[in-house]
């Protein structure tokens, strides 16, 4: 369900935890060079087809929204993306959501359609999935966070439909008046905004921490759900600031709670853990921030720490048996139970990978046998319950991750093989098969599986994503096989360079990674001839890309593997 990169076991990584800042201004979206002209709804999966997706190009959708004075709801995703399938199977076909979506021009922009990466760059979206609400004039109003239930998505649409200001203007107004004086609607918009996926907003760490602390502390207590979401933002930002302080050179004094904050946080966390509605509204906090929150509140051993550990584990157990939640949510609820248990065990060294490639963070034998059996049983239950290939695309990722967490390498391997056999996008899991082989030191199998993933990948941007992964695997595992590296690189780049958006967004990010990989492979000039052939292959294609504007597609093309400029005397 969630795209939290703290727990992603597979090669796909969503947009990183991007810094929060105060946006100076939003410009309406304009059609970029090379914008898609194909049918924007042509690739909508069947499970999301209930929504009246706009049938036409993205540019035409913006024009229709303006002509009809309707806001635009834009979903950016990909067929292989596990969290995308939560939205498609659990939200986009819900009657309430479908009904409310009729008040918007709804656009599905698949990252693999023609020109999609250029549009993605224009709209400032990269990680899958991202959901935007735009004004009729094309101005971004809102980014909707992943992991909301369908009822919250419907409520977000209600609030977004009434919005007259973009989210940065809402934030400025709330900061100026103070959260205690803000309207419930303003606070809800800020609480249910996807700060992590908005790369435009750039606050330094300290102002970001102060902002979230203020939103949490000053939001009225009666707005309990909103206040809890602000608490999660405050806690996760505080944890990040403490990590940054520890990693600084030299280390700096880490920020912490004031005494009055610590007591208030303790009380609110207790209420959150005990309330099913609050838990289900903040599953990402429950699932992924258990250990960090306990350590922030009670860094030392003691009865208060033990009480919180038990309360967190009990809350996770309640989620696990909540039949109103998805299979993926109920399965993921095992993770905080493991985390809380491990905090009570004496430390043990991380074991080496087992024969099947397991990467447990704790020796499996140190965990209670009944817990390990329960986890295996729950994974088996999830595998039998989920029959839809799209939903399996998401749930199999969680199944594999949990089994690896407890060193069940053979069972993890079996689930992985099944996912390759019957999930919607097998190449996604083939790449993980390659990673497991690499962990085991089996270079031949790692390369074989990375090649299968590349060959099996479908879609313009996705084929380059998995093509890059394969090339990186070749260079790390078989660096002396220059002929294969050179030949496969030529094939991957030939395919990419045929696309008008070859130097945009996700494609550009992976081209930069490819350049770094090639430079590392060619360290000390060991493969200079091959690197030059690769550079020339790209250079001869540059003329076909537009040269207008600063940092144009042609400029980006010419920069690939370009020799470093000589220093000025």
Observed structural traits:
569 residues; mainly alpha; Glutaredoxin; 3 domains; four-stranded mixed sheet; 26 helices; 4 strands; disordered N terminus
Question: SSE layout and pairings?
Answer:
Layout lengths: L57 H11 L3 E6 L4 H9 L4 H7 L3 E6 L5 H8 L6 E5 L5 E5 L5 H12 L5 H11 L6 H8 L13 H14 L5 H24 L11 H16 L1 H6 L1 H6 L1 H8 L5 H18 L6 H6 L1 H9 L26 H17 L3 H17 L3 H14 L3 H14 L3 H14 L3 H18 L4 H16 L7 H17 L6 H12 L13 H7 L10
Helix pairs in contact: 2-18, 3-5, 6-7, 8-9, 13-14, 14-16, 17-18, 18-19, 19-20, 20-21, 21-22, 22-23, 22-24, 23-25
Summary, kept brief:
The chain has 569 residues and is mainly α.
Q: What report would you give on this structure?
A:
The protein has 569 residues and is mainly α. The chain has three domains: 1-202, Glutaredoxin (3-Layer(aba) Sandwich); 204-315, no CATH class; 444-550. It has 26 helices and four strands. Strands 2-1-3-4 form a four-stranded mixed sheet, with helices on both faces. The longest helix is centred in the middle third of the chain and has 24 residues, at 224-247. It is globular. Residues 1-27, 31-42 and 355-363 have low confidence and may be disordered.
């Amino acid at each position: 369900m969630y795209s939290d990169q703290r727990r992603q076991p597979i090669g796909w990584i969503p947009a990183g935890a991007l810094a929060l800042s105060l946006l100076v201004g939003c410009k309406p979206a304009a059609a970029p060079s090379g914008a898609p002209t194909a049918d924007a709804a042509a690739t909508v999966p069947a499970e999301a087809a209930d929504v009246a997706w706009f049938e036409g190009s993205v540019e035409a959708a913006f024009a229709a929204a303006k002509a009809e004075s309707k806001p635009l709801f834009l979903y950016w995703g990909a067929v292989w993306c596990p969290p995308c399938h939560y939205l498609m199977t659990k939200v986009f076909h819900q009657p309430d959501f479908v009904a409310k979506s009729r008040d918007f021009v709804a656009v599905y922009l698949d990252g693999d359609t023609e020109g999609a990466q250029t549009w993605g760059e224009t709209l400032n979206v990269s990680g899958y999935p991202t959901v935007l609400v735009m004004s009729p004039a094309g101005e971004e109003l809102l980014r909707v966070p992943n992991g909301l239930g369908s009822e919250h998505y419907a409520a977000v649409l209600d609030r977004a439909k009434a919005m007259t200001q973009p989210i940065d203007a809402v934030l400025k107004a709330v900061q100026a008046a103070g959260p205690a004086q803000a309207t419930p609607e303003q606070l809800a918009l800020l609480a249910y905004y996807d700060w992590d996926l908005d790369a435009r907003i750039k606050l330094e760490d300290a102002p970001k921490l102060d902002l979230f602390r203020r939103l949490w502390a000053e939001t009225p207590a009666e707005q309990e759900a909103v206040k809890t979401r602000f608490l999660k933002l405050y806690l996760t930002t505080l944890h990040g600031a403490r990590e940054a302080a520890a990693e600084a050179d030299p280390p700096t004094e880490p920020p912490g709670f004031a005494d009055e904050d610590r007591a208030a946080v303790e009380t609110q966390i207790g209420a959150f853990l005990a309330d099913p509605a609050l838990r289900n509204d903040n599953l990402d906090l429950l699932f992924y921030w258990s250990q960090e929150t306990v350590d922030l509140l009670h860094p030392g051993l003691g009865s208060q720490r033990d009480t919180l550990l038990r309360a967190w584990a009990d809350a996770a157990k309640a989620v696990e048996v909540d039949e109103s939640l998805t299979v993926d949510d109920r399965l993921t609820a095992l993770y905080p139970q493991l985390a809380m248990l491990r905090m009570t065990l004496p430390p043990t060294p991380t074991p080496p990978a087992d024969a099947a490639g397991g990467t447990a963070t704790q020796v499996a034998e140190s965990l209670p046998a009944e817990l390990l059996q329960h986890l295996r049983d729950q994974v088996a239950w999830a595998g039998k319950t989920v029959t839809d290939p799209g939903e399996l695309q998401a749930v199999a990722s969680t199944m594999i991750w949990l089994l690896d967490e407890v060193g069940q390498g053979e069972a993890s391997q079996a689930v992985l093989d099944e996912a390759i056999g019957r999930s919607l996008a097998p190449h996604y899991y083939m790449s993980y098969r390659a990673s497991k082989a690499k962990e085991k030191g089996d270079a031949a199998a790692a390369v074989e599986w990375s090649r299968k993933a590349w060959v099996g990948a479908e879609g313009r941007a996705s084929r380059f994503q998995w093509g890059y992964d394969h090339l990186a695997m070749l260079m790390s595992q078989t660096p002396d096989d220059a002929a294969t590296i050179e030949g496969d690189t030529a094939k991957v780049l030939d395919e990419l360079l045929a696309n008008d958006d070859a130097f945009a967004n996700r494609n550009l990010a992976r081209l930069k990674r490819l350049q770094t990989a090639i430079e590392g492979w060619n360290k000390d000039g060991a493969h200079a001839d091959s690197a030059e052939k690769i550079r020339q292959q790209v250079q001869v294609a540059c003329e076909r890309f537009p040269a207008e504007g600063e940092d144009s597609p042609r400029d980006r093309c010419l920069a690939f593997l370009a020799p470093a400029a000589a220093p000025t005397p």
